[in-house]
Here is the input.
Amino acid sequence: VLCVSQDFDFFYFVQQWPGAYCDTKHTCCYPKSGKPTADFGIHGLWPNYKDGGYPSNCDPDSVFDKSQISELLTSLNKNWPSLSCPSSNGYRFWSHEWEKHGTCSESELDQKEYFEAALKLREKVNLLQILKNAGIVPNDELYNLESIVEAIKVGVGHTPGIECNKDSAGNSQLYQIYLCVDTSGQDIIECPLLPKGRCASKIQFPKF
Ligand code: 5GP
Ligand code: 5GP
Ligand code: 5GP
Here is the structure.
């Protein structure tokens, strides 16, 4: 019997701050098109279970097919740039995200719908503006983790998860922001479970 019931509980919609990806001990590489805008970019839309576990690589037969997202290219390049090395035009990153995560929500979203859903969520939530409204800007200064959480809670209406990484000097800094989304991929919801954040109580918001 073909099982068509829900095979995950919610999505994490994860955005990354490019400044924090680039100033770690790893290198980063700009896409061929040049340095991305100093704004949050999409990392991924990740199916998750309420207990914190998650499915991955769910359908080896559903390989990434770039022809399905040709209409979304302009928006993907702007909102979902890849900063890993060697420099790439994004297809490697998108392909990785589709095959590892997207194939696990295929019961809800086909490949085009998956990328569209992430782009729509990105449009709906302007994290940089929300933070700016609260006086929180990427200027290498330290901010209270709580004030960042509070600003996003006010701006989005739901509590975000904040993930930190470390710059090359070892300072805790704002790396990724997690919002939770219902299984349709459309509506932001309260997180059933917040991700482990690894943040200090005061964190840097690095320039990019
Ligand atoms: P890291 O080890 O950098 O935290 O995560 C590495 C990769 O594991 C991420 O890029 C992502 O693909 C996956 N991952 C990490 N945490 C989660 C999670 O809470 N949910 C899901 N669905 N994937 C995760
Ligand atoms: P995850 O498995 O954690 O969803 O995604 C991380 C993978 O995507 C890693 O293999 C990483 O090298 C690749 N990747 C490519 N571009 C980027 C980027 O801009 N940010 C992050 N975090 N990972 C990227
Ligand atoms: P991945 O699963 O992305 O290959 O690598 C695991 C972790 O290493 C990622 O979560 C990411 O933080 C880091 N990483 C991988 N490739 C790069 C890179 O090119 N630049 C930076 N800054 N970090 C990377």
